[in-house]
Fold these 2 entries.
Entry 1:
Amino acid sequence: MTQQALQIQGSIVAIVTPMFEDGSVDWKSLEKLVEWHIKQGTASIVAVGTTGEPSTLSMEEHAKVIKEIIRVANKRIPVIAGTGANSTHEAIELTKEAKALGADAALLVTPYYNKPTQEGLYQHFKAVAAAVDLPIILYNVPGRTGVDMQNETIIRLADVDNIIGIKDATGDLVRGQALIEGLSDKHMNVYSGDDETASQLIGLGAQGNISVTANVAPGLMSQLCAAALAGDKALAEQLNSKIANLNNILFCESNPIPVKWALYEMALIGSGIRLPLTPLAEQYRTPLREELKAVGVI
């Protein structure tokens, strides 16, 4: 399947995994969230990306969340399964499972903590791509993983047939532009993974934004990405200004703590989150609530 056939472009939500207060997965709320995103114009959903708490879900739960999102989406929009792991073997097994469940693509974060070399990163992703015939999007988020995949490694991986994209969450626009230029004759697309700079990266040639903010403001993020893709810089900047403070406050504590609390405040999900993550600290609740009001989502 080619990237063109997938048409992964625009606002792509890295969706949360709703939970009850006891930490069990709230399947009914998950179904409602998927329907809401489709109605709000979200172009694609990442199931169990890092925002979806894969590090605290069991393998069975991980697969079940992906399966449920695919079922509800029912091919109306693409579903990208988060299948990254710090073990190459585990990443392959998760990606095989995603393909079997019917995912349209897989998103794989760089292996974390064990800190592979650039050659190790290349061999890791190449091995996953060789083992599973599924479109793969790489994910570089050094601020979270402690591992930074360099542009040269990403460009090298673009020669692997089914590696079709890269989520760049560095927030470094100079570096992002250099990456886009380096991939100009390749089949790999760049997606922003940084809400704060997403519209600017799209203006430089990225194809969309894999977003945390889209969880709570999907309509606005969809409009912003559409404007940026259409080259309407003035509208993109206007919309970006409207959500700039929200983008920032959604990272006042480790993601997905703030975004899950925001969705709870919006009465879209329950209050559940799994240890070692904890509910949003009291001092951040009023500022986040006020920002939700300011952008018109409550």
Note: The first helix runs from residue 3 to 6.
Entry 2:
Amino acid sequence: MDLNAVRLLVRVAETRSFTRAAGDLRLTQSGLSRAISRLEQQLGVRLLQRNTRSVSLTPDGKLLVERAAPLLAELAQTESLLLDRRDSPTGLLKISTPSLFGRKVVMPLIGRLTEQYPDLSIEAVMTDRLVDIVDEGFDAILRTGEIQDQRLIARPLAPLRWVTVASPAYLARHGTPRTVEELQQHNCLTVRNLRSGRLVDWQFMLDGKVRDVSVPSRLIFDIGDALVDGVLGGFGIAQLMNFAVEDALADGRLVPILQAFSGRSRALSLVYPPSRQYSPKLKVFADALNTVSW
């Protein structure tokens, strides 16, 4: 059996279109059709039902795709694993990271890695969008919260911790809140969750428990990066991750407030498919993450 022709058949089945499959595979439609016709002749069965508008699998075609697709995926993973088992990291490492964490923490780290390993290239997608690690071809992603997908490996990293801050200029104009309740008299800069559409609550340690608190806001953003710019501009109070404002706290551009009530944190993991577990390029990235603090 021609495994390459089977691979082409699987792609046609996934896209349900000769046009899309041919484009994905960088083949002509006629070349793709001929390859599958030869496979049908070799097996002595019809695999596809074709008409002018769509293409669908016959019962025999469905059986072949259901049995062959997992085997082809396993072969591809094995090939990738063997190629990655080189002593020195080479090739492209594609990662995704939350936008603000990417700019502040990951950017300096990957810059050093590309200097240290001349044969390593890194594509970093810095976005707060929830990416699909498999469908979008990522080697690894940095993700917060609990990882539900049992098919993936989640390597825990140091948790992210939050601090509530304001600029000295804002506090001079509006005063410094001493309790969480006093935030209701202040302008609090907030973000809207891209997935739920809800404003993200703040969290404080109250009565021995971390509790969600809804704060008033006249400035709402879609990404955490804008919160940093807004609080530095003196527009209000913000609750941000430590790494995002570490420099500004150190040089006095921002001041921590309500520290007695701090307690918000969130798990952070490096997530990757099992096929990438022994990849040298992923290993150097994971090791580098463990050398920095946030």
Note: The first strand starts at residue 48 and ends at 50.
